[in-house]
Specification:
The chain folds into 2 domains: 2-42; 47-125, Orthogonal Bundle (Helicase, Ruva Protein, domain 3). It is elongated, with a radius of gyration of 28 Å. 66% of the residues lie in helices and 0% in strands. Helix 5 runs antiparallel to helix 6. The protein is mainly alpha-helical and 128 residues long. Bound molecules: zinc ion (ZN). The site of zinc ion has 8 residues, from helix 5.
Length: 128
């Protein structure tokens, strides 16, 4: 008996126009939310950017100053400067610079090490 009543309520609800409107609006809101998530996904923050945001800005400035002396060594970026290249290779090199700075190495040491490992030191900064 009870089961039958419940079933009838559902059946009635399914035909109820107000409920259809609610479902329709709910669907639109879900769609808008999905689009919002999708648009956020279009501008992903790389792990490096997220990490960099938590770091000391003066350290990041020092990393950029050193990276700016190099051309990205990956060979696929059209000789972009290492401080602006967004490829994983550039990210790895900058991470190495960051790590070396934190370890207390002097910029000249780091520049020499990066140049030995990856090359790409811009000619105007060439150490000879
Ligand atoms: Zn690159």
């Amino acid at each position: 008996m009870l089961r039958k009543v419940t079933f009838q309520n559902k059946a009635n609800a399914r035909r109820h126009p107000a409920l259809l409107v609610v479902i329709f609006i709910g669907g639109i809101m879900l769609f808008a939310y999905a689009m919002h998530l999708f648009q956020q996904g279009l501008q992903p923050q790389s792990a490096e950017q997220v990490a960099a945001n938590k770091l000391d800005p003066s350290l990041e400035a020092a990393v950029s100053a050193i990276a700016a002396k190099f051309i990205c060594a990956c060979g696929n970026c059209g000789d972009k400067s290492l401080d602006v290249c967004t490829c994983p290779n550039a990210s790895k090199e900058r991470e190495m610079i960051r790590h070396s700075l934190k370890a207390g190495q002097r910029p000249e040491q780091i520049i020499a090490t990066i140049n030995d490992l990856y090359g790409g030191l811009k000619s105007e900064f060439n150490i000879k």
